[in-house]
Automatic annotation (TrEMBL):
Superkingdom as given in the UniProt entry: Bacteria
InterPro entries: Bact_exopeptidase_dim_dom, Pept_M20A, Peptidase_M20, Peptidase_M20_dimer
Organism: Novosphingobium mangrovi
Lineage: Bacteria, Pseudomonadati, Pseudomonadota, Alphaproteobacteria, Sphingomonadales
Protein name in the entry: M20/M25/M40 family metallo-hydrolase
Position of the signal peptide: 1-23
SUPFAM superfamilies with a match to the protein in the record: Bacterial exopeptidase dimerisation domain, Zn-dependent exopeptidases
Amino acid sequence: MRSRTLFPITLGAALLASAAVQAKTYPEAEKATLELSRQAIALRSVRGEGNETPKVAELFRDALIEGGWDPKDIEIVPHEDTAYLIATWRGSDPSLGPVVVSAHMDVVEAKPEDWERDPFTPVVENGYLYGRGASDTKFDAVLAMEAMIELRRQGFQPKRSLVIALSGDEETTMDTSKLIAERLRDARIVLNVDGASGTLSEETGKPLYWSWQGGEKTYIDYKIEITNPGGHSSMPRPDNAIVQMSQVLDRIGHYNFKPELNDITREYWIEASKLEPDAELAAAMKAFVADPDDAAALRVLRANPSMVGRIGTTCVPTLISGGHAQNALPQNVTANINCRIFPGHSRTEIMAELEKVAAEPAATFSDVTGDDSVMAPASPMDPEFVKAVRKAVTAAWGPVPIIPMQSSGASDSMWYRALGVPSYGASATMLKESDEFAHGLNEREPLVNIRPGIVYYLSLYRDLAGK
């Protein structure tokens, strides 16, 4: 009852902040975005027993049918304990590849006893929507969907089909992500709206910059194993498996892979350096673009945790296990090395490099990643996309610096890119860094995103699907 009471006051106050940028309002879409987001958050779409992701798909299907979609153009496909949804707004030219809007309906686990508010009871308070999935990524999915419903309400007829593709296990196995990408491999472009793309000032709440994601590093796990005969601890031997493994991990921990640039990261370093307030860091960013092997620049960038992952491939030890008794020499020691591989390198290539760095004949390496990750090239710097997002962001938020980026994490985009389909992280939402609680406690989304978000998507859909 409390959240219902706050609804008209909080939503209105939040939307006022964007009024100076975009006077036009979309009352039906704005109200529906908040209401549908709340309904989706209330469904516990967590992998395992009681997974309600299929119910989220049904909720979205019903909203799309009410918004004008033919039920025959909406598919909900069950898969194990989850499901995925594909909804098509058919364009006038079926020979053209569709524009796909990608997001996911599942969320990570949340324990109510750890939260200030129940994670699956949405609360609107002080200009924020609280609940698991508020920022990752039910709100973003609903915002993109309601903007498309609004576009249909306005009588727009796309030339290219517009497809909403919502996976059901992005946070875990990504099985449905792979299935969707395979089905939509004829897409012209994918807009992945998973998570915020813009950053708001902590002091003023105004936009600082907006970024689009055109590539991501590949997640890989390697297992290292060293096996020895063992023996009594009173008779030490030189080839102690724990000692050998510690030396291997020390060498890997201190190793730096070759620094690299591609079209997206080069543009990132150039544009980000213009906004960097730290003079030393800004100078290092510029120097790195001029010469990726600049030792002084690399020292500065590698000392910064937020920058080191952007330079090239990184590999770090994350798990270790070994020994079987306090008074026995270890017979077996294993360790896990987690790598984030810069686009353009194979997992076998990186494993071979690690074996060389380890310099330990007794160590055996194996790739234990499984099927949850795939090597994928970066998407191209597509001029049509870049022009369309610049226009959309400006319409929504005013003149804001726009920075392309490459992510060190994983998203559904990699499955499309692996098939040669250009995919871009291009969410409409903006967040303060202090409001970033995805996967964490008390996840929340500022409602100031609703009105400019609708403006953004209306512009983007028209430009990309209307040609």
